[in-house]
């Protein structure tokens, strides 16, 4: 596709996606959650900045970008997420064969691009040629697989924060390549690193002790607070069904100064349930709707007067 046509397609795609949004939150990105963080009354003196203040809205995290409206883990999904009012964009990072961090959820590129093969067997020159949009809708044809560097440069210059998931890395050197991009892009104060793999978090802590960390869990640990302390966690991030087995862990973590961001929750019933549990952030495929719901609950915006 020629550059002018690609540009037109991207603008059209963004506009189409935005037309689908509710009115809430489309006027701009809210300040980072960390900017006005207040320690909860029951939190320890060294509470994570990701713990929300009592009565404050939950942090909105756009899962793989606004992935209900645009192709996941792409720049257009990030743009829609930002315009949806999301506080954070969530991504998935893996390295190409030649060691460049790219955004990709699956081990292979088959589902979300027009190519095939394990991403770790493909070089950047091959990944850069893939179409990562047409599988989602024809209007997104020409959208590319972004590098982490391009994603962070966009967030730095245009606004937004990143919940960076290290999806796959077998060595400390591979994790170091990811950390290096965050540092080179001067985004260490706007990134929260998460992983299901505790090794990744240990390596990040050794390489860059200032980078905040979160552990993803599909089932709860017997003692999440002990795990959080051992791994230096700022947030403990369970799946919704896991959290429902023991909602009291949110208060336990708060007493230790650790936040809880829950995934992946797309219904108002779920947002309400987890808000009652006291969670600090919600990772969702529907950031515009959650932003509107948040504002309506806190009475800060878009609520009709008496
Ligand atoms: O951020 C939580 C969530 O992304 C973890 O699951 O498979 O969507 O990466 P997955
Ligand atoms: Ca993820």
Q: What's the helix count? A: 11
The CATH top-level class label: Alpha Beta
Helix content: 25-40%
CATH topology: TIM Barrel
Which structural class do you get from the secondary structure elements?
alpha/beta
Fourth-tier CATH superfamily name: Phosphatidylinositol (PI) phosphodiesterase
Assess the beta-strand content as a share of residues: 5-15%
Choose one word for the global shape: globular
**Order of the strands making up the biggest sheet:** 1-2-4-5-6-7-8-9
Radius of gyration: 19 Å
**Residue runs with pLDDT of under 50 for 5 or more positions:** 1-41, 302-306
Total domains, how many?
1
Heteromolecules bound: SN-glycerol-3-phosphate, calcium ion
* CATH architecture classification name: Alpha-Beta Barrel
In total, the number of strands is: 9
Please state the average pLDDT score.
Answer: 87
Largest sheet: 8 strands, parallel, barrel
Question: How would you spell out the order of helices and strands?
Answer: HEHEEHHEHEHEHEHHEHEH
How far apart the termini lie comes to 53 Å
Task: Tag the structure with descriptive keywords.
about 300 residues; alpha/beta; TIM Barrel; 8-stranded parallel β-barrel; 11 helices; 9 strands; globular; disordered C terminus; binds SN-glycerol-3-phosphate; binds calcium ion
